[in-house]
């Protein structure tokens, strides 16, 4: 087995060891391959109390990252983050807990008011600029974003009007949603610190790339990206998704995709979630419906993750 693992590693494959539970028998059997793996996937449901701690120091001499799977609570997340886990999977991120709030926090009202303005086809963009300029923190964040390496601009942008015209309505609306998500976590805009936000961003990028490949007449890549961004909005804001969708007045096809997984956008969202869950039977079924191959999907995923 070790010989075959070495061959795969030499061919450039990234390797993960799944269902790790760190019992004595597990460690005795699998320690010889630790030098060749990229990810050690710790199964929280299998790990007994105190069995992991005694191996943490030994793990440091290897180059693999630790992934905690079946993370179901905030306590699980914090505990295994403290152990050194960098990657996480589980219901804590992908299955929202029962929400308690019945309306959007006033702190987000301005953001959603701006989104409503942008949803109006006849809106005067100068009005959007005026509203933005009244929100100092939001304006600073927007200027930082447009001047960031992510946007790839060759010169600084120094006016809100210039930013709005450069971005356009749909990208600006998506950026505002991301800001709302990140603010919901700790009151500050930290767009790369929260795993749930990162999951929403990944969904957005993958769905956009899928839409570009499929080239449907029913929707474009911006709409597909928007569905990905909104797919975790209820968990991020602790508000029922139907209330949020009413507040921001989204397109009916976007609403159907998010609420009922209806239409092609809903099917795209189902595909992305199936990929996250490694449900390859469902992935293959949906790929067939879109006439996409696994090779094409692999290329799309590589392109999406390269944008991180």
Structure characterization notes:
The protein has 308 residues and is mainly alpha-helical. The chain is built from 18 helices and 4 strands. It has helices spanning 2-10, 24-30, 56-59, 74-83, 91-94, 109-119, 125-133, 136-146, 160-167, 169-186, 195-214, 221-230, 233-237, 241-248, 252-260, 263-276, 280-289, 294-306; strands at residues 16-20, 39-43, 65-69, 87-88. A 4-stranded parallel β-sheet has the order 1-2-3-4, with no helix packed on it. Strand 2 (39-43), helix 3 and strand 3 form a beta-alpha-beta unit. The model is unreliable at 185-192 (pLDDT under 50).
Quick structural summary:
By secondary structure, the chain is mostly helical.
Task: State the main characteristics.
TIM Barrel; Hypothetical protein af1432; 4 strands; globular; mainly alpha; four-stranded parallel β-sheet; 58% helix; 308 residues; 18 helices; 2 domains
Task: Kindly estimate the percentage of residues that lie in beta strands according to DSSP.
Answer: 5-15%
* Backbone shape: globular
**CATH-defined topology of the largest domain:** Hypothetical protein af1432
Query: What level of helicity do the residues show?
Result: 55-70%
Q: Numbering strands along the chain, what is their spatial order in the largest sheet?
A: 1-2-3-4
CATH H level of the largest domain: which superfamily?
Hypothetical protein af1432
- The topology string of helices and strands comes to HEHEHEHEHHHHHHHHHHHHHH
Domain unit count: 2
Assign the CATH class of the largest domain: Mainly Alpha
């Amino acid at each position: 087995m070790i010989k075959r693992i070495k061959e795969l590693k030499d061919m450039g494959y990234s390797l993960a060891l799944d269902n790790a539970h760190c019992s004595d028998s597990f460690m005795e059997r699998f320690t010889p391959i630790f030098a060749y793996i990229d990810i050690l996937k710790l199964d929280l449901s299998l790990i007994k109390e105190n069995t992991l701690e005694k191996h943490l120091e030994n793990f440091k001499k290897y180059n693999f990252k630790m992934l905690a799977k079946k993370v179901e609570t905030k306590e699980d997340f914090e505990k295994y983050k403290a152990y050194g886990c960098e990657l996480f999977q589980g219901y804590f991120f992908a299955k929202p807990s029962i929400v308690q709030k019945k309306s959007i926090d006033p702190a987000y009202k301005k953001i959603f008011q701006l989104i409503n303005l942008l949803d109006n086809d006849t809106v005067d963009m100068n009005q959007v600029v005026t509203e933005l300029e009244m929100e100092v923190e939001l304006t600073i964040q927007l200027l930082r974003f447009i001047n960031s390496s992510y946007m790839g601009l060759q010169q600084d942008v120094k006016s809100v009007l210039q930013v709005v015209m450069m971005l356009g309505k749909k990208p600006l609306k998506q950026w505002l949603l991301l800001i709302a998500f990140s603010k919901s976590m700790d009151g500050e805009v930290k767009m790369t610190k929260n795993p749930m936000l990162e999951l929403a961003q990944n969904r957005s990028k993958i769905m956009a790339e899928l839409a570009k490949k499929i080239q449907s007449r029913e929707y474009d890549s911006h709409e597909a990206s928007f569905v990905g961004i909104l797919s975790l909005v209820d968990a991020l804001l602790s508000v029922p998704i139907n209330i949020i969708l009413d507040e921001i007045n989204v397109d009916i096809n976007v609403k159907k995709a998010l609420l009922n997984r209806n239409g092609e956008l809903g099917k795209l969202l189902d595909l992305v979630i199936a990929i996250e869950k490694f449900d390859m039977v469902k992935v293959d079924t949906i790929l067939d419906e879109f006439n996409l191959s696994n090779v094409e999907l692999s290329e799309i995923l590589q392109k999406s993750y390269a944008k991180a």
